[in-house]
Amino acid sequence: MNSRQFFLLIFLNVLLFCTKLSAQEEIVNGMAAIVNNEVITFSQVRDLVAAQEKAAAQTLQGDQLAAKIKELRQSALNDLINRTLILQEYKKKEFTIPQYAIDDAVDKVIRDEFGGDRSAFIKTLQSQGYSLTRFRQLQKDKIIVSAMRSAKVKENYVISPTKVRAFYEQNRVAYTTPEQVKLRMIVLHEGDQTGTMTNVSKKAMAEEVRQKIASGAEFDRMAQMYSEDSTQDSGGDFGWVERNTLNETLSQVAFSMKEGEVSPVITLDNSYYILMVESLRHASVKPLSEVQPEIERHLVEAEMLRVQEKWLQDLREKAYIKIL
Q: Distance (Å, rounded) from C-alpha 120 to C-alpha 117?
């Protein structure tokens, strides 16, 4: 399967409704739900989440995988029920979608995913068992669902300053930059051999290195010569770190130091550490004026989602839905 075929397979799986099965196939696959007078099959549910289930199987197994697949399929079934209700409401209202909108959607797929090669697009469709007519119907359904959802929300919501400030205060941590230090570190481990000092204990070596730094030796040069961790070549440069980045002992030392200060030798789990703080950044909070547009967008999106969910809930309450 080439990349174009793979894309189209995934694309078709996540569109509104997969190809309806014949009566015999429906019996084999079973009915997952009935929505008014329409059936949603287990096959439709599985097809909708095939890619997600495959990804889950790569990281989970046993009961965890089974639980994840159950969660994915329940979510997919709920999505299919919502989509069925929306399409039924569209038919009931006798709305129409202009043909050019469907043509444009199909042309966009051909242009974006097949470089404008319509022949390659048709061949890929056929190889996956889809006709152009069915593909156009899928595109039409997608447009309908999007349009019907959008029609239920206002274009302009006004979010009050009180709500914006309340959200800001409740989520203050999200707008806070934690305290940070720019750190260099020299690490020596008992049992490793460095340089020519094979008969000297690592603690004594660490103390000697610390003394050289105190006498004017460049910290990064000493790190390149003696350090035994992955930052050796970069002169012990750990970059900017937060308190929770380091071991608790090292963190307490690093965040108690002044800019330019070098720590004593720190003994920890048969290893010896020398820290240098190159620079400090104090914790800071972005002012409300800076993040207000972001918060307003978030609250508008949340309100739009709430209105859409309320509409869908109303459709559900008026419909006959039986999950099998």
A: 6
